[in-house]
Design the sequence.
């Protein structure tokens, strides 16, 4: 059964992988893409004081908790959820189904280098995955309508974004109604490899400490507010 977690005033549905995949498969074919995003500790910390980012996160159709530390800080001690989050089971199952169902993928990133990196990793794990196209925002001059036009010209089923936060969420929030695709999957700057290196583990530790401190301060502030009412 789906539960909600609340971190820094940001409420997110904590779907199991099974629940999330069933919800994705039930997405209707309409003119507005349904939104999936991998949620990171860094993303939550930035959203605390960024109303636009917080709005996008809380309106996601399927938020995917991307780091087990988020569950731990939120007090979720379900070992199945921690395990499937750690092993990125949603990511794996999502692309298995995209490959099996021959869904066309469009890659959107900040640079060609980052797009090529995710494309190589996806192709290595899902060799029959169909790529409809790709676009790097570094090519844009002026507004970002050129990126939207590139996406729509390719007529993909899924747009996979590896834009950094909050650029990813600002792009989607501003252009959602213009994007002609069934699904938006925001991976952000996540490493999609199964075994992260020491650099990523160290970075996660720093983010965990900072998020934990932010959550403690937030909860203390909420308690003080309640006691003064």
Sequence:
């Amino acid at each position: 059964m789906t539960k909600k977690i609340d971190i820094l005033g940001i409420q997110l549905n904590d779907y199991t992988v099974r629940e999330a995949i069933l919800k994705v498969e039930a997405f209707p074919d309409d003119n507005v893409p349904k939104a999936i995003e991998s949620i990171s500790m860094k993303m939550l910390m930035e959203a605390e004081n960024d109303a636009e980012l917080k709005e996008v996160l809380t309106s996601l159709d399927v938020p995917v908790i991307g780091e087990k530390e988020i569950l731990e800080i939120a007090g979720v001690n379900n070992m199945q959820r921690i395990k499937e989050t750690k092993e990125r089971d949603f990511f794996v199952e999502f692309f298995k189904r995209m490959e099996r169902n021959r869904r066309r993928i469009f890659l959107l990133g900040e640079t060609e280098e980052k797009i090529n990196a995710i494309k190589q990793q996806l192709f290595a794990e899902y060799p029959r995955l169909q790529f409809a196209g790709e676009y790097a925002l570094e090519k844009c001059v002026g507004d970002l309508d050129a990126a939207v036009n590139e996406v729509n010209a390719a007529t993909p089923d899924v747009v996979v974004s590896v834009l950094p936060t909050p650029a990813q969420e600002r792009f989607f929030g501003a252009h959602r109604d213009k994007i002609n695709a069934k699904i938006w999957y925001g991976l952000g700057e996540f490493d999609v490899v199964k075994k992260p290196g020491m650099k990523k583990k160290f970075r996660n530790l720093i983010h965990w400490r900072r998020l934990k401190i932010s959550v403690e301060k937030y909860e203390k502030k909420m308690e003080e507010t309640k006691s003064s009412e």
